Amino acid sequence: MSISITGMIDLIQECRQRHNDFEKKLSYKTITDICIHIRMPFLIDPLTKTGRPKKGAYNRQQALDHLRSFGSASGEFYLAEFIEPTVIETIKLKNIRARWIHELIEKGLDKNAAIAHVVRKWDVAPTSPPLDRRNIKREYDSWLDKQNSADDQN
């Protein structure tokens, strides 16, 4: 049985408050509480312990893969991404931000104003570092170079 994304978001917030867990990464107690609540206590050790797992036990990556196997519309998938975002997700977010900046520029904003708007309005996950203009500008310039090189090849 899967939990909804909104249900997982609420559960994470509730568990964090219960354990005074306000760091970037989830604490041992918070992860334990969540895993017990979603009836997957077998994921506690692989998600919280470092080092080699016992023979036959899940390792961290297998535990995250297990959570992601519920599908991208599930709370379990959200939890896995919250704990450790995938490279694909990171690239997708960069692409979305760059396209948003490009649309704002096409609507008449200058480049710096468009970047500032995206930095101000982008919803940053609690586990992610804050956005800064210089990195977002670099993201956009890189995306634009790729778009221009693709246009040149066609």
How does this structure look, described?
The chain has eight helices and no strands. The protein has 154 residues and is mainly alpha-helical. The protein folds into two domains: 5-83, no CATH class; 87-153. Helix 4 (60-68) packs antiparallel against helix 5 (75-83), helix 6 (87-106) packs across helix 8 (133-153) and helix 7 (111-121) packs across helix 8 (133-153). The protein is elongated and about 55 Å long. The mean pLDDT is 86.
Please summarize what this structure is:
The chain has 154 residues and is mostly helical. Helices cover 64% and strands 0% of the residues.
Task: Record keyword descriptors for this entry.
single chain; 154 residues; mainly alpha; 2 domains; 0% strand
DSSP summary: helix tally: 8
Uncertain spans: none
User: What is the mean pLDDT?
Assistant: 86
Q: In angstroms, what is the radius of gyration?
A: 19 Å
What about the largest sheet?
none
Distance between the termini: 48 Å
Molecular shape: elongated
SS-derived structural category: mainly alpha
Topology as H/E string?
HHHHHHHH
| Strand proportion | under 5%
Q: Which percent bin holds the helix content?
A: 55-70%
* DSSP E strands, number: 0
Total tally of structural domains? 2
